[in-house]
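Bumping my old thread because nobody answered last time. Still need a sequence for this structure:
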């Protein structure tokens, strides 16, 4: 496996701030078959938690999105699909599997980016039994397969997205951010559809067999060839793999709960571990491991020392502000308090400012989302009309150029994105 991250030459809307942002794309590529088995988009810059969850996506099947054609689904495995999904993921709800392989890698090659040098990523590799190897600095040829994938992705997918900004100033265009109409999650769904419908099914010059060097195999065909030769033994991931891979901190449990990033978290699971003796009589190191997701700090997870099960601890201010927030929003509130008073904010002040900011965001979000949807419908309708005239390269739906069209987002039909015959 080869893992790497690269900036995306397109804009997208952040679902939390509702502002257009630049994106980072992190991918995991199987070297044998050139299959992209995992990917994640991150606004602005990728974090260590994104690299860790990329490992989780590598070993688990990817669910197909609603409305995908049969060509985008995984081949029939010979047993009911609901049974297969239940065995591989531990979920009882039946889901269709996307036509993207899943692997249990023995080794991984990464560059020297901070997210791949982080403790969380190294612990994730150790948990899954992956031997981590670092590429030499300034030597992209140590991981040429994933570098080539980024070039293919840019030339066949990203360049046609609304809001594409090009590789340089010459290809940027005039205010490409005004054409950005997709949220990050929507671009991720479109990318997985591109993988399942086009990339994984298109012949590639890099996939050849020694017995038939003139034939170019697709990544899915190459993956099937490897399975036919070596077999496929998939070890089902742990039920709590998501929590196990999250970043951790060691914290002491007090009567108020546990304190993390200046916020207090509490839950019924902490009752047996609350201190019952004076501070001087407690053990010197009575800290416990707390797992957290920096993208959503409304909850953290406490692991019972005896049973090993994870229990959810809620933020004490969750009742007054249920809107998700991450470490960036929290740092913004702390910076504003520090700029106003010149001193570090108290816990009550921080909670008040954070709750007020989240409530203001929750009240403004519906209006902003409606504006984005209307702009999305207008941009896609104009792109569809230009596409019919042969003057547009944007990915747009095939809708009629109706002069009475009322810019209703519900009237937009699903986009026919890719052709399986398009070369890589």
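Sorry it took so long. Here it is:
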């Amino acid at each position: 496996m080869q893992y790497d991250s690269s900036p995306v030459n397109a804009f997208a809307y952040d679902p939390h701030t509702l502002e257009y942002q630049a994106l980072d794309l992190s991918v995991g590529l199987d070297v044998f078959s050139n299959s992209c088995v995992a990917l994640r988009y991150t606004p602005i810059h990728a974090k260590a938690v994104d690299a860790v969850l990329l490992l989780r996506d590598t070993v688990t099947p990817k669910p197909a999105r609603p409305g995908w054609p049969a060509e985008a689904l995984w081949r029939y495995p010979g047993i009911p699909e609901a049974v297969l999904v239940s065995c591989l993921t531990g979920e009882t709800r039946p889901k269709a599997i996307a036509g993207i392989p899943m692997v249990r890698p023995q080794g991984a090659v990464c560059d020297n980016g901070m997210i791949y040098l982080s403790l969380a990523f190294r612990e994730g590799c150790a948990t899954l039994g992956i031997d981590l190897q670092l590429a030499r600095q300034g030597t992209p040829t140590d991981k040429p397969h994933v570098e080539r994938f980024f070039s293919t992705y840019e030339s066949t997918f990203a360049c046609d997205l609304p809001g594409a900004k090009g590789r340089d100033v010459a290809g940027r265009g005039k205010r490409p951010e005004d054409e950005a109409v997709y949220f990050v999650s929507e671009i991720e769904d479109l990318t997985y559809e591109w993988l399942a419908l086009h990339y994984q099914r298109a012949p590639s010059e890099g996939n050849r067999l020694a017995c038939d060097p003139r034939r170019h195999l697709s990544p899915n065909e190459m993956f099937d060839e490897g399975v036919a030769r070596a077999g496929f033994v998939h070890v089902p991931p742990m039920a709590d793999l998501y929590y196990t891979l999250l970043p951790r901190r060691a914290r002491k449990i007090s009567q108020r709960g546990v304190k993390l990033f200046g916020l207090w978290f509490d839950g019924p699971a902490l009752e047996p571990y609350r201190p019952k003796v004076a501070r001087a009589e407690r053990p010197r190191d009575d800290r416990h491991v707390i797992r957290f997701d920096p993208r959503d700090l409304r909850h953290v997870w406490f692991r019972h020392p005896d049973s090993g099960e994870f229990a959810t601890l809620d933020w004490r201010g969750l009742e007054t502000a249920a809107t998700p927030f991450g470490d960036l929003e929290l740092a913004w509130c702390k910076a504003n308090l520090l700029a106003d008073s010149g001193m570090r904010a108290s816990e009550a002040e921080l909670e008040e400012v954070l709750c007020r900011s989240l409530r203001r965001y929750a009240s403004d979000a519906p209006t902003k989302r409606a504006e984005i949807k209307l702009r999305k419908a207008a941009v896609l309708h104009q792109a569809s009309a230009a596409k019919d005239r042969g003057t547009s390269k944007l990915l747009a739906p095939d809708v009629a150029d109706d002069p009475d069209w009322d810019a209703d987002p519900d009237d937009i039909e699903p986009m026919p994105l890719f052709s399986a015959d398009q070369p890589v």
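DSSP finds ten helices and eleven strands in the chain. Let me know if any region looks off to you.
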